[in-house]
Amino acid sequence: MADSLLLLKRGSSRSTWLRARKARSQLILGHRPRRRLRTLRWFGRRRLRRRLLHAQAAGADWREGVRLVSRAAAPRKPKTAVPRPDPRPDVAADLSTSCSAVLSIPPVRRAGPGRALVLLPLGQSFIFSGICRVTCLYGQVQVLGFNISPGQPAQDVYSTYTHARLNVTAVHYSVSEKSKKELKREARTLLRSHLNRDDRRWLMKNFSPLCSVMMLEHLKTSTVNFINSHPGLSYVFLQEVPPFQINLEYFTLRSVGIRREKKKHGLRLTESAFAVMDELVGISCEEADGCPVILVCGSQDIGKSTFIRYLINQLLNSIPCIDYLECDLGQTEFTPPGCVSLLNITEPVLGPPFTHQRTPQKMVYYGKTTCKDSFENYVETIKYVFSSYRREAPLIINTMGWVADKGLLLLIDLIRLLSPSHVVQFTSSRSKYMPDLTPDYVDSMDGLYTKSKSKVRNRGFHLAEFAENLEFADEDKESPVVFTGYKLMSVRSEFVSRKTGRNRESHNKVLRDLAVLGYLGQLQPPVPRPLRPLHGLTPYQVPFNAVALRVTHADVAPTHILYAVNASWVGLCKILDDVRGYAEGPVLLAQTPVCDCLGFGICRGVDMEKRLYHILTPVPPEELRRVNCLLVGAVSVPQCVLKSQRGLEGTLPYVTTDYNFKLPGASEKIGARETEETQREKVHPKPKLYRNTN
User: What pTM was computed for the model?
Assistant: First the structure.
């Protein structure tokens, strides 16, 4: 062991062959490995030498990687060098060391078509890309902060190329005071109902105390299949990249739908992030009311969303549900973009946003991915959604990444309005300077709509101008609306994003399109039924006089309103006003209402003769009966839906080169000129171009 450490520390001037020759007597290098060593390049030799030395340090045969050498070939070591494994919990660290030494690489075994067994020692991680279903058969594993134990339902895990790769880690679990033989007998009994005899023998041969066994299965969902059906989007879940090493493990994982990834591609959080999460989980579980309000802020592309997913999963390990308030319009987590929503989360979040679109408890369709043009409407929208929070579970608030100039002042307004008990602020050396949002700093600064309250007692914020419209529970109405100070928690981020100043907008546009496609995937029948193109689905028929219309992001003339609605992404909303009574319609709204949004759809066509809208939506009919308003915003239908649907022949509906960009609302970016290539792909506004054939 000491010789191997000395070899690792020596300089690079000596040749690799001489260093390997030093260990020849102990590693038993034969003729074939010596010939292989001569044919490798310098980096290949360096990698092989490192594996040889690590195998020697672990007491393993380098030719098999995970098998122990025989007593005759293994180097003799003092009895005190490696502690004797003890199954008791108080020696978990020793067991972790011994397991990691024996199994330096997690073994993988094929367990049938589209199934694979993975045996993980304590503390080791399995980093992968792709999608699969994870079931823990023995021990305990953790994925993105969520613990999976035997007896729990299988979890669908999405490790996509748009985000950092996920890893499955074997974590410590309680073990009774039993011998290794008794533990193996218990594990064999537990696995008997899941595995055949050969698989159980393989596991028992490599079994060690505190190891975890998980089953990976091939996963197919209608949403994933729908996204993959569009050209160029299948790379999101799995890429055909030349593998680092082609072996039996590679083909086994490929049959599952995943591939092994290097450690540098995996998800990494800093120590400060873990420390903050541990403190927040402890506060949520120990407080009498158990309802802290946690606001997460920081600049864009710094790791806020990843931190929130990890925190949600960590909290779900201890408590049944968490409330989540979405205030980021551009990169929403559970809804299509352009929404402010409040959700009650009871299931773990094990993938990017487009894989877990959910129905909110309260949602307002703002209609734009930024609030720079109408701050007041944005604040009113957040007030309206926040009024539904009943303080029955911890609340996590996600904010925008715009924290400069007016964005910082708006963030100060939100802190005063939402009155968080904890503010988690992300900082990084790569991001722009952002002052520490301490209670004293927020207390002394003026926001966009609020003034400083530095002389208020207990550093409280008396929000008369905001609180008068807030709705509270009956037990809270008697107390005065005075919000106390919060605790600032800083996280130093080392998150490395692929986004740069040049590709940030296009990258965000792709993520927004994927979120819309993930929502539209709910229209597809469940697996294994085949996919149906959107133009082959039967839409709902909505009379003109049954719903009111409003374009939220631009001023559109009444004569052009149907051109703007046709082939557009629409929010299905409910307003308090009664729109019935109009003979023909359409009914137009003079102002954008702040109202409940029940879901989204595509206005597939407009029938001018029968005066009907054809709406395609996954919202159930019982909810659609409440819809009496259609809101059209700047969020558009992805171009791949219009151009790349299966079954389309001849001229593509809605796609034309003859388009008038001078019409208000015709461009996604108001007042911006667009290239000729973009103009050729724009949506045609004529309502009779697309006919309903169903």
Answer: 0.78
